[in-house]
Design brief:
Radius of gyration: 17 Å
CATH class of the largest domain: Alpha Beta
CATH superfamily of the largest domain: Leucyl/phenylalanyl-tRNA-protein transferase, C-terminal domain
CATH architecture of the largest domain: 3-Layer(aba) Sandwich
Order of helices and strands: EEHEEEHEHHEEEHEHEH
Length: 234
């Protein structure tokens, strides 16, 4: 049985996650900021809702990307050097979430980014925990991503692209910012070929939880995000 969380119930240990169900750990609770931050600190994340109830996951293995292992391809480096795209940080968080929710994805019917999710993460953004990176072409947003930062840990949530390499450019700038500010790991949650092509890889839950604990306890270098100071194509 999957545990059902009432308003005051704590999360069960992550070792109880059902691997035959993709790492599903619990159902219920709420999407209030304190609940969400507690979940991420424990290595748990919400992935969709059923009848308004959040579904909480902690898969094993876990897809991660260590910033120093980011794979910058020749074609992406060429795009970065071209100056075709303008990149901004935290300039339109709502817009990024809306695009992530509405952009069709191969093999995916609909989106897990429900109105409840949009409201919850927008609130985290207003509180300084959630951040976005946007890619613009001629003043129009054509790609981007969003996620959370706790300590020196970044949790990637979703990305979208309306132009070739637009989301990859945003990701390259994110990685450069994280490296510059000594972040140690990006949680990518689930395996995808796209993330693997950028340098992501799977690690076992035990290793993930140990590294996570170190990074969230190490403190955040700054609370205000801005475009990275170094050229990511360098």
């Amino acid at each position: 049985m999957i545990p059902y969380l009432g308003p005051l119930d704590l999360f069960p240990p992550v070792e109880m996650a059902r691997e035959d169900m993709g790492g599903l750990l619990a159902v219920g609770g709420d999407l209030q900021p304190d609940r969400l931050l507690d979940a991420y600190r424990r290595g748990i994340f919400p992935w969709g809702t059923v009848e308004g109830q959040p579904l909480w996951y902690s898969p094993d293995p876990r897809m991660v990307l260590f910033p120093e292992e980011f794979r910058l391809s020749r074609s992406l480096k060429k795009t970065l050097n071209s100056g075709r795209f303008e990149v901004r940080f935290d300039s339109d968080f709502r817009g990024v979430m809306a695009n992530c929710a509405s952009t069709p994805r191969p093999g995916q019917d609909g989106t897990w980014i429900s109105p409840e999710m949009k409201h919850a993460y927008t609130r985290l953004h207003e509180l300084g925990w959630a951040h976005s990176v946007e890619t613009y072409e001629e003043g129009v947003m054509v790609g981007g991503l969003y996620g959370l930062a706790i300590g020196r840990m970044f949790y990637g949530e979703s990305m979208f692209s309306h132009r070739t390499d637009a989301s990859k450019v945003a990701f390259a700038h994110l990685v450069n910012y994280l490296v510059s500010n000594q972040f140690g790991m990006i949680d990518c949650q689930m395996y995808t070929d796209h993330l693997a092509s950028l340098g992501g890889r799977e690690i076992q839950r035990e290793a993930f939880q140990a590294r996570l604990a170190e990074l969230i306890a190490s403190g955040s270098p700054r609370s205000v995000w801005s475009t990275d100071p170094l050229d990511p194509a360098r």
